[in-house]
Structure of MYND-type domain-containing protein:
Amino acid sequence: MPVSSNTISFNGREYKLSEFLPEVITLADELAKNAQLKADSPLPADTDFSESEQREVQRQIRAILILPPEAISIFWGAFAAHHLTDVALSLRRLSHATQRHAVSTAIQILSLLPDPKEQPYFRKFLRNAAAAKGIPTIVARAFVDGTSWKRPSGPGHHCALIIHMLFWCDPSLGDDGKASVDADVRATLVPALESVLESTRGSDIEQLQIVEMERLKGILGAIDAMPGAHYLDSTRGYLEGQLDICDGNMCDEDAELSCSKCKTTRYCGKECQSWHWKHGHKVRCFKTDY
């Protein structure tokens, strides 16, 4: 695994990552609060975000994304570890018909999370069937029903999120066992993708957004073309096989130990575990409730 620095450069100065840790945890908590994702302060039923509430969430997202890359990485780790269950509870509770902006905001935040291959807490959440139950179908249905995409997110980010959920979530979460997204939603997702792709022709949408939409369309075709959950089972098996090596310093040994606190990192032995703790994991280690 690559070496992670214990310092970051910001505004021409060097800071220890540990100095940023309380700040990014606070930022993660504030984003969850402002997006009204926390279980103790949910958005009232049939009440959607106001314009000012939407602007505040978008302002905070933009502020987070200009932080140094290492700080952003720690931020998303803290958010994923502490608030993904809040996001899931919110999405299960919200009504797309009457709370479209709130649903769109929750999905936007999820879509900005790093790839689960790189973000271990996001990966851990998706692999937990109880924690992720129903979420892939809700997220996919929101694309079909129409989402208020706001930069820096967009339809391609939404599609990438659905792909992550297809690849990492248990296919048994879906009603036909072929994929974590229910069959009827998958069927309506394809024409919805075609419609959005058609509407983007000649627009200034980023090419990567189009690529992700086309990619999801192809994956959905492969899922339905193969028997059972063969396509997704084999894909997930390949991805998980890449995680079986040690997270220590440039170590490619098979991993047999895991961090007892976060359970997201793995090691071949105590020496590599100790090295990793001192070289970055200490500020990225969070306990989760999933």
The chain has twelve helices and four strands. Residues 239 and 267 are 18 Å apart (CA to CA). The radius of gyration is 19 Å. Residues 245-290 form one domain.
